[in-house]
Fold each of these.
Amino acid sequence: MSETQTATGPKKQHLIDPEVCIRCNTCEETCPVDAITHDDNNYVVDAEKCNFCLDCISPCPTGSIDNWRVVNAAYSIDDQFGWQELPAQEEIASAEDGGEAVDDEAAKLIAEAHSGSGGKSIAPASASKPTINLYNRGRPVTATVTGNFRLTEAEADNDVRHVILDFGDASFPILEGQSIGIIPPGSDENGKPHVIRLYSVASPRDGEKPKTNNLALTVKREPQGLCSNYVCDLKKGDTVQVTGPFGATFLMPDDPSANIIMICTGTGSAPFRGFTERRRRTMRDAPGRMMIYFGARRPEELPYFGPLQKVPDGLLRKHFAYSRVPGEPKTYVQDRMRATAEEMLVFLKNARTHIYICGLKGMEAGVDEALADICRSAGMDWASLRGDMRAQGRYHVETY
Ligand code: NAP
């Protein structure tokens, strides 16, 4: 701990795990009080500015932001810049060993700290327990590419790929909704290794094919994208350095009676392919319904368009929204939701309904407004319902 710190008694400190953080800057952009900053090495939280609003917790794609310690004196940002890993929880003095009589308060803080973010976004009650952060930059796992297929039509603007990674004998337990990190080879102009990129897993927990130790990703080639071009160009037999798994809240409920509404754009459909395959393989006769609102420019641009047509309506009710079909009005997912408000309302009134939103950051506000309008039309209050659903682990957003 630095000498500049003042001893103020035990207090909770918000920290970022440097081994898991992928330096994506989302937390720094999100923090409303500018408490998060970074240097070439680490993203850190300034204890003097952090007001525990927790706004940064949900947007963090890896969960590295959700770390807490109870400290007698706060770690400074300079301390944190130098870290390669988080320090262990220090011993907090109790009255018995001659310290201040703070043990009850400290115990409460430690318990709160270990319970994570305070419940802003939690996993569904029935979700399986995820394994997270098994591999990191210092200790990645090697996967072998066993497939790389183009998902969009040849004439489509977008090259979206279905990439299959096999883990051989290595353990890589994954749940539907989790993500993995890919380490692009090489280094940047300053000689530093490239930042890890995150991709949602598009296959269910038992593999791309049942009982295989592999997983699938849905990756769109970005014209200037360092990692997306690397992944989209991978050939069968190539090896890839992988970190993760990541994500402990955007998880599929295991309860067959859960209704699952999935709202996505483009490659944001990746986790929902995993959800759908999970139900199809293990809960074919589930009483809970699944419904997807899926937005793309045109049918040719919609990942998994062909296979999706073959999924029976009884398993997955599908609503497509196309924004750039010549001669047709521009339609976004939120427009389709409004157009099917009656159907949405049946689900929104049901306490077994879970909502998942994944895709473009820009869709978030539009989808939220649509849900508010749909609720208003039936005399319901979306803000209060959303709060309840979030607290019950039934409302999940993952947008970039
Ligand atoms: P895209 O092709 O750029 O867009 C898909 C559709 O969304 C288009 O029809 C687009 O319409 C529409 N759209 C644009 N703005 C919208 C808005 N404000 N509200 C509703 N719809 C809107 O999609 P993409 O490039 O595949 O991007 C998907 C996003 O998902 C990316 O940001 C990606 O990072 C994120 N994501 C990916 C994964 C993954 O595993 N790959 C996982 C989670 C999230 P127009 O362009 O015609 O306006």
Amino acid sequence: MSDGQSGLVPGAEATAPLAKSLDILTDRRKFLLGTGLAAGALALGRPVRARAAGRTEITFASAKFFGKETMAQVVDAYNQAQSKVHVTYVELPPPSSSTEVHQALVQQLARRTGTPDVFTQDVVWIAEFAGAGWALALDQYFDASVRSQFFPGTVAACTYKDKLTALPWYVDSGMLYYRTDLLEGIGAKPPETWDDLVATAQAIQKSGKADFGYLWQGKQAEVLVCDLVEVIASNGGSILSADGRSGTLNDEKAVAAVQFLADTINKSKISPSDVLSWDEEPSRQPFTAGRAAFLRNWSYVYGIAQDPSASSVAGKVGVVPLPHFAGGKSAACLGGYQYGVNAATKNREAAIDFLTWMSSPATQLHFALQLGIAPTRPEVFEDAQLGKEQPFMKQLKSVFTGATPRPVTPKYAQVTLAIQSGVSKALVTGNIKAELDAANAKITSIVAA
Ligand code: GLC
């Protein structure tokens, strides 16, 4: 696969294909491990390669991602692939600790010291960071011909007031994992509506083949907003009005959707009350341990679920779009992280060179294969190896590209906390309408101001 972005940056070297960089990395590690040196360096999370004189030093802060490889290893591969720039990687908490990652970045960026030079950001922070003047506009470095190589929706999500203030990295969307063997066992098809899901989950629970019917994420955290966007949109509702000036969280459709979530615990009993304190990983674990029929989660779960060393249900897992209400349409929340360059960086050229490499087709393919995160370049979706290892990605391409965004506003940090707290209270107390009325009034006061 060719790197369509090489040569964009004046004076930048063409970047070596990632596979080649990784070979070098592997050989070097083998050598270092032989001498007993690498183990210590890796345990401390420090890059294996010593800094080389004459290189431009930049820092890169990102949430922690995990899979068959770590972000530190990918950054290390870049350091070895060229000789002009050295990147020091600063690891933040995982994306499920969204509030903490956001706080760490805001504290750094607001100082305007230029550190970190490059960062990754959740798709929901792009407007805030751009609005505050913390993110460098990237239009001149990634021109229209480069931008056209990414899905238009991800470029739109990276654009604030007509400026490209972020660069697409990966696209995430919620999806429904199910146990193929359990569904076949009762002659059921993957559900299309929430009613279908309830009926199938109950039948499987009744047969004694699974403790839980449906696992989702109800913890008072960012992921609750994601689950909420999906269930509300699948009933034709929304969180904000079309003009973004007022909340619609207490409309009939939204209330019915939240009632459905509460009912999964108290009425249909397809979900354990533990879901109210679970985010992604705690909800994923019982599923891959074979205890549940259905799970709502992101794409990273697929690789784990199909890996016999990590899962007791490998080979028995299917993925389909999430169900919808009768008369509604399936909806997936738009997630994913994107790259950003600190507006105060003193090392623009080095930052752009690094991002050119990080966003290249070869690196995107590597992230998809090793970390299970979906490319933002259509051509990478077509890769044969990806089709073999992660077939659901191509099958669900329209789910990724048609995902529903969370409210797009520079005030998202305040809006999300109001949603998380209000919806969490609604689910815990069962006073759905009253709590959503209160949360909606708060949301309106934030976005109307
Ligand atoms: C995933 C999504 C991200 C979302 C987070 C919530 O990492 O990619 O957009 O905010 O989950 O936990």
Amino acid sequence: MKNYNIAVIGGDGTGPEVVREAIKVLDVAAKKFDLKLNYTDYDFGGERYLRTKEVLPDSAATELRKFPAILLGAIGHPDVKPGILEKGILLRLRFEMEQYINLRPVKLYDERFCPLKDKKPEHIDFVVVRENNEGLYTGSGGFVFKGTPNEVAVQESINTRRGVERCLRYAFDYTRRRHKENKLTLCGKTNVLTYAFDLWERTFHEVGAKDYPDITRDYAHVDATTMWFVKNPEWFDVIVTDNMFGDIITDLGAMIQGGMGIAAGGNINPQGTSMFEPIGGSAPKYTGKNVINPLAAICAGQMLLDFLGETEAAKAIEDAVISTVRNHLKSLAAGKMGYGTKEVGDLVAQTLADAKTVPAKAPAKKKK
Ligand code: IPM
Ligand code: MN
């Protein structure tokens, strides 16, 4: 039996209640696929900060690095000034654990929940590979003459050859593994950001031509990308982009796949500890009301198992989510699903428990 230690950060707002449902489903998957999942809880988040005035203990990343994976609910508290927890917990963990990829699949499970006219599941199925450690997110910059009429604010986008190249290589490898259209689109702004995206574009073609000749290289400006998400989402297979553009386009991506209730992502360190989360935030107004959609957190759990190499168990969770969405839910939005948070978790858990699983095929023996 395979044994995995998983750190759990429920976090703020509705984070803990959606994480509870994700664990409910993970436990069913574990039973079915003969895995042992051991959870360790961490109380990082707004409540802890308000109580102790410490955003994140310095030992947090060191401690968390012992785990192969982390399941995160949400970070963000209405009584804490915006930025403190986001930068102090979420971004700090992403950086300190070198989770240099933010992997965000955009997949429509049911056309009823797509806001785009005539778009069906076969039209919306792509993945955004967002650089997760650099760009505008590093905190580089500063003020000059702050508070005076001459005030200057500078916020710099940091793009290193090493950081850009490792992100691109991950995206190329991912495109190859996914094996759908074998097409990778670089999303940038080469017509204006002539330094940052010059580096991205040169590295993209250099690495692609040398090591990934089987992958078609495509390019789209970020503004055009948002247009195509709405007009022709079927054009995309895998998209690779910088941190800020990735942040923006994946919110739009979430909307076309059915909303924040279903959108999950993984902060990935391919050689280290990765952290999986619903991308929707803490939704404080829904806290404790049993109305928030837990599917995004459940899908984060699915991505976590996939990262651990438990691809069959992950696939089974996804199938159970799809079946629940198609057969039971009235909506993917909080309070409108036709079921409560816990009941949606129960539906997925039950569907998964009832599903016939095809045992893994033994590798075919070569005939002599
Ligand atoms: C996300 C969020 C974060 C980001 C915020 C909360 C710092 O919007 O995960 O997309 O900008 O990366
Ligand atoms: Mn975001």
Amino acid sequence: MKPFESMALYFTRAADRLALPENMRKLLLTPKREVQVQVAIERDNGQIETYVGYRVQHDDSRGPMKGGFRYHPDVDLDEVRALAALMTWKTAVVNLPYGGAKGGLAIDPKTFSPRELEAITRKFIDGIHDLFGPDIDIPAPDMGTNDKVMAWIMNQYGKYHGFSPACVTGKPVELHGLPGREEATGRGVGIITLKLLGRLSRKPKETRVAIQGFGNVGTHAAKFLHEAECRIVAVSDLSGGYYRKEGLDIPGALRYALEHKGTLAGYTQAERITNEQLLEIDCDLLIPAALGGVITKENAPRITAPLIIEAANAPTNMDADEVLDARGVLIVPDILANAGGVTASYFEWVQNKQHYSWGLNRVRQELDYVMTEAFERVWETGKTEKVSLRTAAYIVGISRVHRAAHLAGNA
Ligand code: NAD
């Protein structure tokens, strides 16, 4: 199933509950604008190469559109369109005054030199600079892009429009970025996990957690949950999985990864397992924090965790979701679980607009407040509507977008 089709099916489940008429469904699913631009650069070997850059602006009923730029070989219009719509529902679930967008380039950034990456980013911005901006659409990092790329975007945008730090978020802290932005998605995952455990009257100490992915999101979620006394029994990255029944030494594993170019390859303080085994390991809570589409209808019956927190975007295929739902597995969906990142991006944008910086403690406090409010709203909706947390999150998001479109006179 293509990504947009899958998102549209989740949308339809919630739209059915809301009894949204057909014309409203069409309005809410149709992207406001989609652009494709030619991005040609000279590679280091002197050859000119041409790529296609995408930006899909899905909906702006609730405010300027917000969403990352992804640099990955699999990027295509359908995927960008699906991720843009997910951003619309995600910003609405956490009640940020934003719509949704997404963009990207189908390149493997690992095969580009820093000079080439800078050149392709600036060329991409040349092609779309008049279509985004602080009050229109605000990009951010996603897979394959980082704070450096955001700094080039701010600089290139400024050449056309003057000093505008609020045109992009996820910038380096020294260049109008936000202390706490980097940890925010993983921290948000941790906050949501503790709220869920609280609702289920489960003690963190008695909760065994497995985390797939030990990058930005996975490491910060592991750190937060370890400090909250959860027992992290397994983690994994591209090099495979690492398991210790009694609980891993998370500070030690974090130090190890930091000293080894971000990977756990060669880490010996745990039993080696495969990434497939990690997903199926005996634990109480599973956090996929790497790729999309890792929980499939094939492995879903073998997943033993009764609780799943979707830190990655779209880690659970639709048919797997049905299998898990039927088995009573409780899944906190991506549009709620990983919304800490866009929430911190919103804080960065607010501060850029005000030219005033908050400290890290305030960022953390405000993040806690936004994530808690969103969790409680989704949880209550799930209870009153007697639906899964995924459908509940879509109900919350879609109804807010629909209401805003209606009040503004668009629908
Ligand atoms: P990252 O690149 O920092 O880390 C990804 C991690 O996954 C790495 O440890 C990598 O080794 C591991 N990995 C890659 N392929 C794997 C595989 N096949 N099996 C196991 N591990 C594998 O990325 P990130 O920023 O941590 O993002 C992770 C996920 O969270 C993505 O789905 C992303 O879209 C989503 N997300 C990230 C943010 C954010 O702010 N970073 C916000 C929202 C959603």
